[in-house]
Write a structure and sequence with these properties.
The complex is a heterodimer of chains A (257) and B (152). Chain A has 257 residues and is of the alpha+beta class. Chain A is built from five helices and 17 strands. Chain A has two domains: 111 residues, Probable inorganic polyphosphate/atp-NAD kinase, domain 1 (Rossmann fold), CATH 3.40.50.10330; 116 residues, Tumour Suppressor Smad4 (Sandwich). Chain B is built from no helices and 14 strands. Classes of the chains: A alpha+beta (257), B mainly beta (152). Strand 9 of chain A pairs antiparallel with strand 2 of chain B.
């Protein structure tokens, strides 16, 4: 067993239908010399304590096995643990894998074994980290940028603030998580030529290091699978905060393929 | 894997230079907007606006602000003074209500300019002030002798 590696299996992988796949995965990891201690997420077990225990036991690389939701459960605290993060997506949604250049299934072991490590930025919403994006759908909120100016969409416009990229749609959209900036996308539906009965969407794009989402009414904000509610949310970028094992051949912006 | 947009990795001194900022239709910006990058405006801007890059003001854009830009192409409406370091391109649909200062300018027929226009900077630092417009353009609402000003 390689003490530098530890694996976090998501709860759903306890299902019998994953037994064979997990068995093959563990054999493959052993053959590459990257097998390690395994911990399983469970409903009444703290993921944070589990990871900190593994790090204290000497694990330098903690690999999440599951899907995007597995990674999202950890991201709010993970950058402070100080470990290198790996990801083996076994089921969909696996957009984070796509954005990190990691294929779904056993092919992800090739990426893990190659151990190409990159240090990326993470975003922060108030005191919680986020990896992918913050979404404020159909909002009355405004985005205050760098304390200098305020951007307000027409009523019903949506605000997304991206670090790694968007994973909420059918196709992931990449942003650059190494540029030291957050990318704010504000979508508004405007009058004009209608297509399939809908007005066209216009996108405002702004880069920022610090900002505040402000609303006169309480709003829901979605970040890495979590929902928070409130009137005001501080946004910031923390450059070079998280080490991740990545694959090759990923676009840094635009729709990922 | 994460090849930087700007050809190098993040070095802790990130600049937004090179990335285009877009203010789309249906969006209003209020306050002191500053940028190092190219900016495209199709929406509304109120306050002050400054960019070191290329400013493109779309035909539906409405700017109520003093504007500073490295270079600019204006098709929409600006209410405020405009200072352009290099070249200003004023399209036929443009309406600028304020003083304009630029090194070189190109004004299309039909553009409306209301204010003082200063074009070109001589080696001594003195600027040449000219009435610049197209044959069918108007300055201060009056037909003027057309001058296509370009002086460096």
């Amino acid at each position: 067993m390689n003490p530098a590696f530890a694996y976090i299996y998501d709860d759903f992988l306890s299902d019998r239908r994953f037994e064979r796949e997990i068995s093959i995965l563990e054999t493959e990891l052993a053959s590459r010399g990257v097998e390690g201690q395994v911990a399983r997420l469970a409903m009444f077990r703290s993921a944070r304590e589990t990871i900190i225990d593994l790090a204290c036991a000497g694990a330098k690389n903690i690999v999440f096995v599951g899907n995007d939701k597995t990674v999202e459960k950890m991201m709010w605290f993970l950058p402070d643990v100080g470990v290198t993060v790996g990801y083996i997506p076994l089921t969909k949604p696996a957009h984070i894998g796509t954005l990190l250049g990691i294929p779904m299934g056993l092919s992800a072991v090739d990426v893990l074994a190659a151990r190409l490590v990159e240090t990326i930025d993470v975003g922060k919403l108030d005191d919680r980290y986020f990896l992918t994006e913050v979404i404020v759908p159909a909002t009355v909120a405004s985005l205050e940028v760098e304390g200098q100016y305020r951007v307000s969409p027409a009523v019903g416009g949506a605000i997304a603030v991206r670090n790694l990229g968007s994973v909420s749609g059918k196709i992931p959209v990449a942003a650059d998580p190494k540029d030291g900036w957050l990318e704010a996308i504000i979508q508004t539906r405007v009058n004009g030529d209608r297509w399939l009965g809908k007005s066209p969407l216009d996108e405002t794009t702004i880069r920022l290091k610090r900002g505040t989402i402000i609303s006169k009414e309480p709003i829901d904000v979605f970040m890495d699978g979590h929902t928070v509610n409130g009137f005001s949310f501080k946004l910031s970028i923390v450059p070079n905060k998280l080490k991740v094992i990545t694959g090759k051949g990923r676009e840094t912006s635009g729709r990922a393929t | 894997m994460f090849n930087s947009k700007h050809g190098s990795s993040y070095d802790g001194k990130a600049s937004d230079e090179g990335a285009t900022t877009v203010i789309a239709r249906g969006v209003k910006v209020e306050g002191e907007f500053t940028s190092q990058s190219d900016v495209l405006i199709e929406g509304e801007v109120h306050g002050t606006f400054s960019t070191a890059g290329m400013l493109t003001v779309g035909s539906e854009a409405k700017i109520k602000a003093d504007v500073k830009a490295g270079s600019a192409m204006v098709s929409g409406t600006i209410e405020g003074n405009v200072i352009v370091t290099k070249h200003l391109d004023v399209k036929a649909t443009a309406k600028i209500m304020g003083d304009v200062t630029t090194e070189t300018v190109m004004i299309e027929s039909g553009a409306i300019l209301s204010g003082r226009m200063t074009v070109g900077v001589k080696p001594s630092g003195a600027a040449a002030t000219v009435a610049a417009e197209s044959p069918r353009g108007r300055i201060n609402g009056r037909e003027r002798v057309p001058v296509l000003a370009s002086e460096s």
